[in-house]
Amino acid sequence: MDRKGIERSFMITEKTYNIGVEATMDVIGGKWKPIILCNLRYASLRPSDLKRKIPNISQKNADSTT
Hints:
Helix content is 42%, strand content 9%. It is mostly helical and 66 residues long. It has two domains: 1-30, no CATH class; 31-66. It has a two-stranded antiparallel sheet with strand order 1-2. The protein is elongated and about 40 Å long.
């Protein structure tokens, strides 16, 4: 499929993104979010279980997932 000439932009709040990946990374970016999401992909976990699976995460970050 030829995408030449197709122009897309996404706007979340007042920031404009040229591609969806850019917007996604802005939403899920950060140090812990991708790691937490990876650990939650198959089942929901209690913060204490999450802390056990991710030893370096602070209790505050583990608790903020609920």
